[in-house]
Amino acid sequence: MVREVARLHGDDAPTIDELVADWLPTVYAWCARLGAGRIDAEEAAHDVMMLLVRKHAAIEGVERLPSWLFATCRRVVANHRRRVWWQRWLPGVSLEQRIAPERTDGPADQRELCERVARVLDRLSDEHREVLVLCYFEERSVAEAAALLGLAEGTVKSRLYYARAKFQARYGTEP
User: Fold this and answer.
1) Fewer CB within 10 Å, N- or C-terminus of the chain?
2) What pLDDT, on a 0 to 100 scale, did the predictor assign at position 130?
3) Which residues, 6+ apart, have CB-to-CB distance to 132 below 8 Å?
4) pLDDT value of position 91
5) Whole-number pLDDT of residue 134
6) In angstroms, rounded to a whole number, what is the distance separating the alpha carbons of residues 155 and 87?
7) How many Cβ atoms from other residues are within 10 Å of residue 34's Cβ?
């Protein structure tokens, strides 16, 4: 693997296919360990590799590739763990059913759950509802949500933290 890293920006630069093939086992192992069995490590590793494919030209220096990959794994795994946390509130409900809770072709329990979630979301402030919808229903990253909302990433993270707490508290009291 060291020879591939050494060739990253040299004359004998590897193709992106070679980089992915060389690093995928390591990235998969990192995702599996960081996810601690709570996430789909294959899916997380795939997301990391897609980021590598899109951003490999921006990595400065061959010595930066391993740390860049590990940092990327940490962020991707954290996003996957947050998604799993959120999905525990909506077990077995598809994204389409979450967006349109008024559907009547699903089981009654799922419709009731969707309606309950919709009522709780309606009781949240616009600021909290926006970040929950962008980050969990639309599965956008914090950076994407920040860009869409015209806010700093730290503000989005803070709102997301408080929005989850308020959602959880209100969900527990919702009939």
Assistant:
1) C
2) 81
3) 121, 124, 160, 163, 164, 167
4) 53
5) 79
6) 23
7) 19
Extract the residue ranges of the chain whose pLDDT is less than 50: 1-7, 9, 11, 94-101, 103
What's the pTM value of the predicted model, to 2 decimals? 0.50
Closest Cα to residue 64, out of 9, 137, 132, 22?
9
Q: What is the DSSP string of the chain?
A: -HHHHHTTTSTTPPPHHHHHHHHHHHHHHHHHHHHTTSS-HHHHHHHHHHHHHHHGGG--SGGGHHHHHHHHHHHHHHHHHHHHHHHTTSTT--HHHHH-TT-SSS-HHHHHHHHHHHHHHHHS-HHHHHHHIIIIIS---HHHHHHHHT--HHHHHHHHHHHHHHHHHHHHH--
> What is the model's pLDDT at position 3?
47
How many residues are present in the chain? 175
